[in-house]
Prior knowledge:
Blueprint: H1 15-25, E1 30-35, E2 41-45, H2 46-62, E3 70-74, H3 79-90, E4 94-98, H4 104-114, E5 116-121, H5 126-131, E6 141-144, H6 150-160, H7 165-171, E7 172-174, H8 175-178, H9 187-198, E8 205-211, E9 219-224, H10 225-239, E10 248-251, H11 258-270, E11 273-276, H12 282-289, E12 293-296, H13 298-311, H14 315-325, E13 332-335, H15 342-350, E14 355-360, E15 367-370, E16 383-384, E17 389-392, E18 397-401, E19 408-409, H16 413-418, E20 426-434, E21 440-445, E22 450-451, E23 457-458, H17 460-464, E24 473-479, E25 486-492, H18 494-504, H19 511-514, H20 518-532, E26 541-547, H21 566-572, H22 574-579
Parallel strand pairs: 1-11, 3-4, 3-5, 5-6, 6-7, 10-11, 12-13, 13-14, 25-26
Antiparallel strand pairs: 1-2, 8-9, 9-19, 14-15, 15-16, 17-18, 18-20, 20-21, 22-23, 24-25
Amino acid sequence: MNDTNQKIEKILLTSAHVLLEKGMKDGDAFRFMIPSGKGGWEGITWRTYLGNTARVALFLNRLGIGTGKKTAIFAKTIVEWAYAGVAIQACRAVLVPIYHTSTPGQARYILNHSDSEVLFTEVDLLPAVLQIWEEIPNVKKVVLMDLEDEEKLLRLLKEYTPLNAPNVLRKIISMKEICMTGDALTRDELREFESLITEIKEDDISAILYTSGATGDPKGVMLSNWNFFINTSDWIEVLGSLIPQKKVDLMWLPASHIFGWGEIGLGNIFGFVTYLTNPKDVLGQMAEVRPTVFMSVPLYWEKLYEEAKAFSKKREEQLQRLITLTGGHLRFCLSGGAGLKKEVKEFFYDAGLLIIEGYGLTECSPTLTMNRKDDFDFDTVGKPFPTVTLKLASDGEILAKGPNIFKGYYKDPVRTAQAFDEDGWFRTGDIGEWTERGFLKVKGRKKEIIVTSGGKNISPSPIESRFKDDPYIEQAVLYGDEKEYLVALITLKEDAVRAYAGAEGLSYNSYEELIRHPAVYSLIKRSVDRANLDLAPFERIRRFHIHPRVLSTEDGFLTPSMKLRRIKVYEVFKNTLEGLYDDPA
């Protein structure tokens, strides 16, 4: 175990420092590739990246946005996100990301709670900002990152703020206007930018990342430059040798999530050529872009697996199909955000592709454990990072210490105190166990443990994950606290169910009617029975309800990072789920 009290002698290096060096040294090389209007890709060089970032940083500095000042970004993953994110760091301000799927009310809460004074956003999200305009008085300036059409801006202002349009317009500026002087920095600009980043300190709060909890308002996780730097150093020590010589990265992850922001940071360090895309198009672009690096949540690895498996009944043809789908050049695969099924990892491994999986939380900057190239166990999330110390509490909760652990929740001393035990160990809220070889297994969330009336403790996530590969079931949510047995709320893959109905000649007038058809119930019952096969009797799902709509972020049932808000599901569907116990099972 590591001595977490020992000072680690390393020289602080941030993305701003890296960008200055790469921009001066490799200015003509491409850093990003962005979709062009003609269906192709447009290259963004390191020189352009440096120039635009430096000018945004100097703009913020002139506004008085310096040490400790909060600046928010409310946008999809576009190249301007990288400019703004690094610029905020460069002038010692605090980055406050807001998921682009957030509602106006959620954005308002984060902007006000964080005390953000500047907001970077995009034209498509401006209507959401205008809806809350009078309720975010601390915001002094709004920077439109992608504004090209001034007429579109004026139309939006007239539509959403017809009486106050002139006053609103005075607060808005485009990033294009900030960066209009061209790619190459003048000598004065370069000197001023260099001066800014030399002032960056280890203990500066670099970001406040709002985590979407199951209940209550989101918590603002304060992470310092040192938190990020030390976790990145651990990452490079553990996984750096796996990064291929040719570094082509296909990125769809939201930069507003620590996983996506980390991908941009690693790309800066390793010199990735990062193709920026979106969740809808990414898998279809793999064969075209032929990435060597791909980072993703389990959903996309599973989609690739399912498509390859459906291609043929022969294993070798399935594996070859996977190589074709991924472009044939893939070398580094990282999965995060949730657990990935073992059979998916084994399938990729048989195709010569090792999917690396680890474990962490936003509060840990974010990584605590990771599997290694020559030291992995697909049943686990790996071993602790070099500077991380872990132990299990008496109830199995994973506790952590290390220089990567966050500084606290912004303006929330009560929840900050609750996050640590009396000896200063961070409470992860996850239940774990160690294997004989020193690998960590995560069994589920402590607060999500279902305790039946018979006193059995059940972690719902592993059982729910059994349905991830089901051809007809999209989601399953277990319920049964203080009950004799488990029941489940189930949503379906609509296209697959409709195709089944067509093949079976089922007649129906609506999808809602179709899911109540006895044949569909029997179809789903067979899936549930298969999932129950090797479970203990108290873990088996005895009854279920089919809901016609998939649980989504828009309805508040999933966090922006696609994690289930279990308490929200229980609240909304309480009567339905309780009704499954009305008759004896």
